[in-house]
Amino acid sequence: MASPSPGHAVRPAHDADDGPARELLTAAGLPLGGLGDSWRRWVVDGSAGLDGVVALERHTGVGRPVYLLRSLVVRPDTRATGVGTALMRAALAGADAHEGGRAAVALLTETAVGYFERFGFTATTREALPQALAGSAELSGACPSSAVAYWRAGAASS
Ligand SMILES: CC(C)(COP(=O)(O)OP(=O)(O)OC[C@H]1O[C@@H](n2cnc3c(N)ncnc32)[C@H](O)[C@@H]1OP(=O)(O)O)[C@@H](O)C(=O)NCCC(=O)NCCS
């Protein structure tokens, strides 16, 4: 796994980051639907704007809250230097801290299959994801049906 360098400082996103974040996501072909409703977003600053973005949606329903990790993108000329790893760790730590233990997190991806196992995710089927996620923009159409679903189970006590 790439080690995040000390230079990849992750911070919570501000309103002013919304436009640059959407530009990065659009350039990578990732869906924007529902992004504004996400629970929290994090960014890494770079010399030419944002170097990376990630967002978490938090869905509640029957049982424990479930998070949907989405909108992970790193500026192309900064990839493979640990920015994605730093963003993933920050997002998962944020969810875990909020739940007081390991949070349940799902994601869908077409473009980064094989990336998420290193963060404790396993590939699954979309149908196996919790019903609480069904109303999310990604599961209700923004992500193509060919996207691979990943799941990181939460702690029983979280
Ligand atoms: C996927 C992405 C976020 C990874 O970020 P990154 O900062 O380049 O990744 P890191 O530096 O943290 O990690 C590099 C490692 O991830 C692997 N990796 C990078 N991109 C990958 C991808 N698209 N698929 C699978 N593995 C990938 C590298 O091979 C490298 O592996 P190694 O550590 O075994 O050498 C970035 O490539 C990106 O923005 N891609 C386009 C958008 C995208 O696909 N987002 C995911 C949507 S769910």
From TrEMBL:
<protein>
    <submittedName>
        <fullName>Amino-acid N-acetyltransferase</fullName>
    </submittedName>
</protein>
<dbReference type="Pfam" id="PF13508">
    <property type="entry name" value="Acetyltransf_7"/>
</dbReference>
<feature type="domain" description="N-acetyltransferase">
    <location>
        <begin position="8"/>
        <end position="140"/>
    </location>
</feature>
<dbReference type="GO" id="GO:0016747">
    <property type="term" value="F:acyltransferase activity, transferring groups other than amino-acyl groups"/>
</dbReference>
<dbReference type="InterPro" id="IPR000182">
    <property type="entry name" value="GNAT_dom"/>
</dbReference>
<dbReference type="InterPro" id="IPR016181">
    <property type="entry name" value="Acyl_CoA_acyltransferase"/>
</dbReference>
<keyword id="KW-0808">Transferase</keyword>
